[in-house]
Every structure is written in structure tokens, then in C-alpha cells.
User: Fold these one by one.
Assistant:
Number 1:
Amino acid sequence: ETPQTAYKRVMLKISGEALMGDQGYGLHPPTVERIAREVKTVHDLGVEICMVIGGGNIFRGLSGSAQGMERTTADYMGMLATVMNALAVQSALEGLGVFTRVISAIRMDEIAEPYIRRRAVRHLEKKRVCIFAAGTGNPYFTTDTAATLRANEMNCEAILMGKNGVDGVYDKDPKEHSDAVRYDHVSYDDVLAKRLRVMDASAIALARDNNLPLIVFGLDEPGGFKGILSGQGTYTKVG
Ligand code: UDP
């Protein structure tokens, strides 16, 4: 059946930090479960869901703990961190009865499926949540680029960027400036020209060149993800 929502197939991108709760590091199981519940409510509407999860809660290629390491090595470690996060979210979703597949850009056949586009599309058609892990499989990229790439490949209608502590894109950092104003709508070119912190520039350009809208919303409010699918709540549309 066709879902009565604004979108039938979406990419949900969350950062690794969205999974760490109030801890400074790693995975916070109640937070992982809360995110999984958010995904389940949208899945229950019949929406086909792709996910990309960052790795910053565990390891980032450009972080302090990567000091002295070759950039590519550090980036591979970051990609491995995203696989751990993907497995944690998979486990939480399956605990709620949602069928999932973790699909890795780097082969690790005992842990995750390799990425084969047609196979991933089939999973979506069968209403399995596809969690794309290991980023793009390439160093010097980010999981924002991975989310944009896979969203294009999977013909997603939008990328939903779930953020912590902020409910959209502002003209300046709302945590530092009380007069910061949230955009309802902003163009890709303005995001690039004004260096608004949405995604890195290569991800924005990839979305722009394929006319893929980005919806930036807050993950903190329970029901926020479902609300966005029904056109409710506050958010910024980039596109
Ligand atoms: N990474 C990479 N290539 C990719 C995706 C990720 O090299 O295609 C590495 C990179 O080192 C990055 C880390 O994985 O710092 C974690 O990803 P990201 O910083 O995007 O995670 P987030 O900030 O969303 O938690």
C-alpha cells in the first residue's frame, strides 16, 4: 500500500553523536533504543527507510586520537566506527520487530552484506530498513557524502538530517547567538556561499546537482521524525 506521507522513500542521516546520549563517547543503549523507536514509527507508516549513521561518537579521521596517523588509516578507522554504530542500531530495530539489513561499503561478509545496488533496492521494496555502513568506503569523505550518494542511488525523495540540540539551519550558531534566525527554506548555493553548517561542501554539491532536498530537523523531540514525514514540526528545507 502507498503511505499517506510526504515521502515514500527517505534517507535518514544521523551523526554518531546522536547515539551517545549525555556520555562524551560511545553508545548509550537507551538513546539507541529511542532512535530505533523513532524509526519504527515511521516504518509503521509504510515509508521505505534508508539510514546512514556517522561514527564521530567512536572515531573521526581528523580527531585528536588520530594524531600522528596517516590520514587514510585514520579515515578507515572512522569507517569501521560507523559499522559498529550500524550494528547497534540494527540490533535495536530488530528488537522492536523491524527487519533490517546492514550494508557495508567495505566488504566484511561475516558482519554485513556487501553493497549491491539492486539488492538494496529489493530490501527496501520488502520494507527492510537498509543501514548503509562504512561510509562511501573511501577516505577523505564523510558520512554526509555517503548519505547523499546512497540517497541518490536508492532514488530517495529526500535526505532527512536528524540533528541533536538544534531544529534546523540557522543564519548563525543558535547556541552562541540568541538572535540567530532559523531558515524555513534555504538554497544549496546559499548554504555553500554562507558556509552554513548543514553538511560538508561536497555532500551539499552532490545533493544540489541531483536536486535532492535536505530536511534538517531536531531529533530531540519524541515523535519528531514521524512529524516531519507528515509535514509537522519545525525544520529547514534545503533545496
Ligand atoms: N569516513 C571516511 N569516508 C567516508 C565516511 C566516513 O573516511 O565515506 C571516516 C572519516 O574519518 C570520518 C569518520 O569516518 O571522520 C566518521 O564519519 P563522520 O565524521 O561523517 O561521522 P559523524 O560526524 O556523522 O558522526
Note: The mean pLDDT is 95.
Number 2:
Amino acid sequence: TEGRLWGGRFAGGPSDAMFALSKSTQFDWRLALHDIAGSRAHAKALHAAGYLTAEQADAMDAGLVELGRRVESGEFVAAPTDEDVHGALERGLKEVVGAELGGRLRAGRSRNDQIATLIRRYLREEIRLLAQDVDGVISALADQAETHLGAVMPGRTHLQSAQPILLSHHLLAHAWPLVRDVERLRDLDRRLAVSPYGSAALAGTSLGLDPELVACELGFQSSVPNSIDGTAARDLVAEAAFVLAQIGVDLSRLSEDVILWCTAEFGFASLDDAWSTGSSIMPQKKNPDVAELARGKAGRLIGNLAGLLATLKGLPLAYNRDLQEDKEPIFDGIDQLHVLIPAVAGMVATLTFHEDRMAEVAPLGFSLATDVADHLVRQKVPFAVAHEVAGETVRYCEQHGKTLSELTADDLPRISEYLDEGVLAVLTVEGSVSSRDGRGGTAPARVKEQVAELRAARSRL
Ligand code: ARG
């Protein structure tokens, strides 16, 4: 039963197909160093409770350190006969400290509390790295926003021209959701800081081991208040999968804008050569593959979350082997984002914006119509009337083949008695943008403030 942690009550070993199904080293090996950290903490608890003498505890700890070194250097790897990371490492420990001492470590713990602890510890480490990655995209967006302060563009709702806005305002609108994603990761980190070690199989340990000692050794804030919950719960893994999916979705929405902006029809931006790809047949092509892969991977991340929730929904308490199915989707999500996010950051940082083109199309689609209405409201005309007059103004322009900014004083009385020459002053893209000067609005002074507010928010993350 080398590499297998059970066998006494079985007359024979598992069939090949049973073993192939059960085996998890091909994906849970990445938890090996966390498992060794857990074992070192557990050995301390065993010593504190009198199950290891000081000499045994020292030898055990030195053995675990040596095993960790062998794992890191690749000298020790899972063997084809190892069922899971836990079995493989016990085999490795026995190789280092001998079977007698090595066989003492497993007292008072179960793979159920072990795996529940390892996945939390692993996720804490990974989401901190992810938070840094996400901050790289936020930083790229903030830098572009700062560089292009003052540049205008058409703002859209329903993808139709709505009102002119600042390009910086739009870029920052992609940064704030990512700030919230990092906050979500920080918040989740606090919930993950509770250690299930000591829950044993489900009912807790009978050996007087101190779960708080283990929790503290492993960098957790405390141990779980309920051993059944400690071994059976995977909501925190699902929550991590949600935040990963949300990050994917936020990057996907940003990417969709980039894809549109880089079309010939929009012409708002161009991709840097280093962050785009060519076509094997069409020589002119420069494709936004980073953005498209972001959009594609968002779907995959949503699938990982949905699959995990489906796995959890019908499980009775406490541990069920179904829970092993949490690993691959969450590992996959982490791996995908580690590859994706730096590429998105690079793509954003190197985008070239075509300010003239954006300024040219900003007033199209009668995007200044709201400014006509707002102007009349400032003259104390009721908004319902102002809306009607602004609508008539658009209709007049349409009939005469003009944009709103091309109207002259002669046109006004032919449209409505309500219109005075003062309206012409607001019928410019710059006038429109500057007039939206409430907090959060697109006026240049406000957007400048917002860049500073974003930098302050980042420093608190
Ligand atoms: N590999 C399992 C998992 O990922 C942990 C081991 C628990 N196995 C068991 N037979 N109790 O959840």
C-alpha cells in the first residue's frame, strides 16, 4: 500500500480503473508545499499534546524541511502508485525519517481537514498575486487616462451615440470595476483566514490537539468553529471562482471596447505590434487577439464557477469525494488569469488613441440634443417642454442635413420660439462636456479629480 493511506481492512488493492479514477496527484501535487507546511504545524501540535517527544518532533520537522527541499528541487515527485498528494508525501517522509517516525504523523488528522486547509492556504497565496496582476491593468488604464486628459469621444448607450464624453472618463470607467474586484479579493482573503485543521474526518480530533496552534503556525487568523463545516464547506472556493469569473467579465467588457475601437469603422485606437497578431492569408490584418482571448476566457471562467456550484448543490454533510472536483476548475481559473491579465495590461498600456477621429465623430448622431434641453431648463423652461423643443431641433437638423453644432442664429426662430442665441454656445462638444461638472461627471476638472481619486483608492488596496 505504498503511497496509499489505507488498506488494512481490504483483502486486495483497487482495480486499475478504480485507481485511475481516484488518483489526483496529476493536479493536487501543486499543493505539496502547503501540505508540508500543514504537516510541520501538525507535528508541533502532536508534540504539544505529548504524542511526539522533543527528539522525535525535531527529527520530524527536519525531515519535513528536507522533504520540502526535495519537492522544490524536483528530486521527489509523485509516483504512479501514489493516490494523492497526501499519500505521496507520507511515502516521501518515510524515505527521509524512516517508517516508524514517519508513520506517527497522521495521528489525529484526516485528508478531509488537510485538503480543506490546503486549498484555503493556496487560494490566499494566489489571490494576493492576482490582486497585483489586476492592479497592473488598473495602473495602465489610469496612465492612459492621464495622458489623454482633454480628448473627447462619443459616449454611447445601446451602442448608439448618446452624449460626448472624455476618453479619460471612459477609460476610468473600466478601472473602477477592477478596483472593486481587488477589494473582493482582499475581503475573501479575510474569510479564507480560518483554518479547518483539527476538524479531522468531520467530528474533530480526540487527541487533545490544538487547532488554534496549527492555525497560527499556518498564518491563519483562527481555526474553524465547526469541524463539520470545516471539512464540508467549499463556499469559499466557489466565492473565489466567482471573483475570478467577475475579473474575467470585467476584462472582457474592456476588451470588447478595444475590439470595436480598433475597427476601421470606429478608427478610435490602434494596437501595438507587440500586442496583436497577423493573419496567415490576409497581409493587411492586425488582430486584437489579446482582447478576444480575454472575452473567450471569461466564458471559461464562468463555466468553472457554474460547474463548481452544480457540484456542491446536492451534497449532504459532511465530506464527500465529489469535493475533489473543486480543484481543477479553480486551478484552471487561477492559471488562466495569471496568463491573461498581464497581456491585457500590456495591450492597454500600448494602445494608441486617435484623438482627431474621436473628436470628429463625437458630435455625430445628434449627441448634443440633451444640451439643447438642459440649456432651456437653465432658462427655467419645464423639462418636458425642453425635451420636445430639443427633439424638434434634431428633426430640423435631420431635414436640413445639418449637425446640431452646425446650427446658426438664423435657424433658431424657424425651429422654436423658445430658442435664443445662447444655445449656440452649448452646442459644441467642449461646451457639452464641460457642462457636466457634477461629481463623477465628464467635465475635465472632474475627470482630473477622478484620476487622483483612483490613485488614492489603489494605494488603499
Ligand atoms: N483528494 C481529496 C480532495 O481533493 C482529499 C482526500 C480526501 N479523500 C478521502 N478519501 N477522504 O477532496
Note: Residues 111-147 form the longest helix (37 residues).
